[in-house]
Amino acid sequence: MPPTAANIPIRQGPHAQPDRTNGSAKLAVRLRGVTKTFGEGRTAVHALKDIALDVPEGELVMLVGPSGCGKTTLVSIISGVLDADTGQAEVFGIDWRQLRPDERAKRRQELVGFVFQQFNLIPTLTVVENVSVPLLIGGMKEKQAQERSAAALESVGLADRLSAFPNQLSGGMQQRVAIARAVVGTPRLIVCDEPTASLDAKRGQDVMEIIRGASNSSTSNTSDHRRCVIVVTHDSRIFHYADRIVEMDDGRLKDHVSKHILDEAQHVPKYEDDPAK
Amino acid sequence: MNLIALRMLMRDRGKYIALIAGLAFATLLLAQQGSIFLGLLIRATGPLQNVAQPDLWITDPFTTYVLEYRPMSDRELQRVRAVPGIAWAEPFFSSRAPVELPDGSFKTAQIIGIPRSTLIGQPPVITQGRIEDLRAPDAVFVDESSRSRLANVQIGQTLKLNDRRAVVVGFCQVKLGFESNAVLYTTYDNAVRFTPVGRESIPFILAKANQGQNIEQLAARVTERTGLGAFTPDQMRGRTIGFILSETGIGINFGITVLLGFVVGLAVVTAIFYQFTLENLRYFAVLKAMGTRSKTLVRMVLLQAVVVGFIGFGIGIGAVGGFSLLGRKPGAELTPYFPWQLLVLAFFAILLCIFMGSLLSLRKVIRLEPAIVFK
Predict the structure, then answer these.
(1) Cβ contacts of A72 on chain B, cutoff 8 Å
(2) Per residue, what are the HEC states of A120-164?
(3) Which label site among A46, A112, B159, B252 has the fewest CB atoms less than 10 Å from its CB?
């Protein structure tokens, strides 16, 4: 039976191993002693303090915690868009800090898909052109990229909006476009930053179903690699989608997730279908 | 990625049009003012261009402009004729005189006097009448474009030149000078009568070198033997242009306008392009986060700059072409001159404009931290 919102047990803690992989999965993300400080002297802000975290392939991990606790900084480092000050940040065995900028950009293009809170769709590109961007960055021809993008958009239910511009879509639709853009290049790691924060509850659930589906799928027909998904969120209504919840506070990962978060994760909200979604 | 860059640029219609309009305007200012400036300089040499035959213009060594000279005596003419290597030497008169019109008003005309016997220095194109008729008493040829200034005179009509009778015997077509005065051709003797001068009455001596004679050497010989200045037509044109540049405010004024065109273009392009880049910075960061290399982003920004540059330049040059066509009408006051060198210069000025304008944007894009996508 495929994992659904209702039947996934929530594990907790930075090193907890997921049941879904039977403990045999390779590590997608491995962090050891990661620190990050912004600013200097008395104005310095220690955003991350000695972070250690393992995330196996195929796992959907939610990073939760109060605002300013370092969640976004942590996913920025995991996804290779920000350097840690100290420690090791490895994704699929690659230490970002060992790569030159161009090599790092290439690896990001191959390995990481992004979903942002504000969608970050380019307003002057159509939906299908937006989704094609990661493929074009990878060097694919325009026509082929658009064909693959159209298929990705079909998988998120937007086959009929290929030529629309982002401002012609609802927030939920825009986030689905962003998800299509994140998965179209078959990345092995998807990083989502507050993917449901701009959406109402029902649309948030729809988006999470799609993200959940992406985490369950292989990265390609010929590969048995399973996607790892890391979701930064405040939204307790989507906690139940997580394979594992990792809680942060004041730049550190907590050993145990707070009880109220676990309680919220056990609660699966029900929403009526919205014909206008 | 080039396609993405172009779509980002062209589908942001407002800024795209503003950028092109700014560059087109800058191009127009640069090239059109430049072409009018060059046109004025060329126009100033018009009286010299009308005289095709001589190898040398001989005059006072300090003469720099065709209407500003120190006259020479007949004796100087004979001395020039005596210089070895001179095939012939003829006087050439050029001066201003008031022409009285039938309604009592007057216009200033430029009187060109050419030798009655040889007619050397005659107008390049005769449109009505025969040049030989100039030998008739009090005869004058009138430049076609000057007719309207002279109450549309006809052949056979009489003009009053400095209170002396002048009879129109034909019309010609000549290049006007820096000043837009009417141009009249007459014989040298008539010209001296129309515009009273002192004992020394020859402004210029036109001279032809013997076959095979080195012109530069001949000019040096004339100067050595007579103490006069002997200039080739090119040198004479150069002196005229030098006079306009140094003795009038035209060079500075046009230079300021051209500089303003460059500054306005630079300011407009920098401001709009920087604003355009700033507004797209988040999307550039997204592209960078998704794996676009910095040099690809730089290429995208430069491509956007070059595309608006080319289109703006093309539109601006098209507008300049329109102005140039206006100036091609015979006798038109606007006389733009648009050599290919000016086109190349304007192109590089606009290129410089867009590269300087995009520098700020490039700096921003190169320093862009992809991590801002999470903010």
Answers:
(1) 374-375
(2) CCCCCCCHHHHHHHHHHHCCCCHHHHHHHHHHHHHHCCCHHHCCC
(3) B252
